[in-house]
Amino acid sequence: MEVGDIEDAVAGLGAPPGLRLPINAVAVKPKRRSRADRVRGEPLSTPLVPGTQTIYVKTFGCSHNQSDSEYMAGQLSAFGYSLTDEPEEADLWLINTCTVKSPSQSAMATLISKCKSAKKPLVVAGCVPQGSKDLKELEGVSVIGVQQIDRVVEVVEETLKGHEVRLYSRRTLPSLDLPKVRKNKFIEILPINVGCLGACTYCKTKHARGHLGSYTIDSLVDRVKTVVSEGVKEIWLSSEDTGAYGRDIGTNLPNLLNALIKELPPDRSTMLRIGMTNPPFILEHLKEIADVLNHPCVYSFLHVPVQSGSDPVLTAMNREYTVSDFRKVVDTLMVLVPGMQIATDIICGFPGETEEDFAQTVSLIKEYEFPQVHISQFYPRPGTPAARMKKVPSVEVKKRSRELTTVFESFSPYQEMKGCTEKIWITEIATDGIHLVGHTKGYIQVLVIAPESMLGTSTDVKITSVGRWSVFGEILEEPSLHPNKETTRNISKINTAKLSSPKDELCNEDAFCCTNTCSSCACLNEKNSSVKTKEALDDRYEGRVKFAHTIQSLFFRRRRLGKSSVEKSSKTVAEKRGDNKLAYLDWFLIGIIFLGSVTMVAVLIKFSSILFSF
């Protein structure tokens, strides 16, 4: 018998969101034992002590999904469960899924199969099970719906006992005050609403997230007060469509934004980033939105998906705006907000898209030269109207995607910044583990070499070189609270490179109308370049014993000089490098040299004694 929703089972219990309900309040599907197990008399499962196991959490998709995972991890941690990044170490896997495109769902299916092969208990959350409840891959696993994240402890507990639990629907939004374990302690992803008002023909996320449901302004203001007091330095407003906020509760986005910025510290230590918004719902508020974007504590950045430069294609997508509407949004914001940065999305090869339609899209992108364009091929999602439309041949879709990517990569949006001084807010470590990632007021990514103690601070930098995806800066004056001079001597000038993908920040936002997606950006293929370090390598050898110094200089200096300068500079960020310790191979080679020298001396002594005997 299929187990359905359990809202009716717990409706009268009155438990606050996030609190663990009694076990008998959870509808479960006990796992049936095989006939062989019953004959052997084996128990269904070994008794477990709840809250003592280790959980692996994997997240696919958008920033809203990431926030949901952080809330689930927070509740599990608060109840006593340990969290791990190593799936092999975990007693249970929790997979938070994304249904935007086929590749993300395929990756989920692969991970589920791997988990089942490893015989690990599994809980699947997110948009896939919510939007496709009968999916074959979900057979025999526990499921949490997108609005049931405050029940994760119960589901995990029952799943570890061998039961199958399925929770889907509810009548209220999850509380914003649940325990939370942030992926980045300096960044709070704050969902302001769920669902949307659109009905795009290609969107599967609408099936999962549903109709618009907005949090109240008071609840969001309280949350901002809390996270600021906790030391958060960057707040991302997340939503399937930020511009639609409040239309279901009698308010609007400008009212919310003006209430939130009043709670931000006047010293600009915490910045606000507005999430993705579709054109229709901000057209009537452009002047108010521009005023907010000009606020000192708000990034002058907005993600506005256009999806196509052709009105007939937008009509087929049911996007509810025209290309001229999109142009009005972009043109108005660019005029009213100095340094405004706008990112957009394009779907290549939507059913019915002609060569002329695609040419109009290319022309639009060329005209504005957007610094960030998320380019995606069309993927038909089961159950959507677009999946039944006549498709453009896949060869042609890929060709158009490559052509638009080439056009986009020909832009040089940051060239004028070289030599300028910019204020940046530093919140992350780059993927290379060496640079710190900061953002300008326009949310342009700047990479600097500086100590980790500068995370969560703001500083002025001089832009020393410009890459296609990022710019590179040198800190002008390190704050006095960072006394480690050794780490500041290696501030370097960087050649053009992409060390931390914009995908990490921007593709967590929406590439399709009703979801913030992690789309296939065109910005993922440039290789890292090396760093020219100012510090002289000879400083490494100061204070060593002369004999060891001589041996190392003779035999290992060339190898050390041959290391990439990026590796040599990495000690400015983390104290993980043992630059003053010789590797095991070095000691092995020294040992061989020493034994060889001793042997040679012995041979010479022996030869001398024989010679003198004559």
What would your notes on this structure say?
- The structure is a single chain.
- The chain has 614 residues and is of the alpha/beta class.
- The chain is 32% helix and 16% strand.
- It is built from 19 helices and 22 strands.
- A 7-stranded mixed β-sheet has the order 1-7-6-5-4-2-3, with helices on both faces. A 5-stranded mixed barrel has the order 16-17-18-20-19. A 3-stranded parallel β-sheet has the order 8-11-12, sandwiched between helices.
- Helix 5 links the parallel strand 5 and strand 6.
- Helix 8 packs parallel to helix 9.
- The radius of gyration is 29 Å and the shape is globular.
- The N terminus is likely disordered.
Which key phrases capture this entry?
614 residues; alpha/beta; five-stranded mixed β-barrel; disordered N terminus; S-adenosyl-L-methionine; iron-sulfur; transmembrane; transmembrane helix; 4Fe-4S
SSE topology sketch:
Elements: H1 7-10, E1 28-30, H2 35-40, E2 54-59, H3 63-79, E3 82-84, E4 92-97, H4 102-117, E5 122-126, H5 127-131, E6 142-144, H6 152-160, E7 163-167, E8 187-191, E9 193-194, H7 205-209, E10 213-214, H8 217-229, E11 234-238, H9 253-261, E12 271-273, H10 286-293, E13 301-303, H11 311-317, H12 323-336, E14 341-348, H13 355-368, E15 372-377, H14 394-409, E16 421-429, E17 436-439, E18 445-448, E19 458-466, E20 471-475, E21 493-494, H15 503-506, E22 531-532, H16 546-555, H17 557-561, H18 565-569, H19 584-613
Parallel strand pairs: 2-3, 2-4, 4-5, 5-6, 6-7, 8-11, 11-12, 13-14, 14-15, 18-20
Antiparallel strand pairs: 1-7, 9-10, 16-17, 16-19, 17-18, 19-20, 21-22
GO molecular function: 4 iron, 4 sulfur cluster binding; metal ion binding; tRNA (N(6)-L-threonylcarbamoyladenosine(37)-C(2))-methylthiotransferase activity
Domain Radical SAM core: 182-414
Domain MTTase N-terminal: 53-161
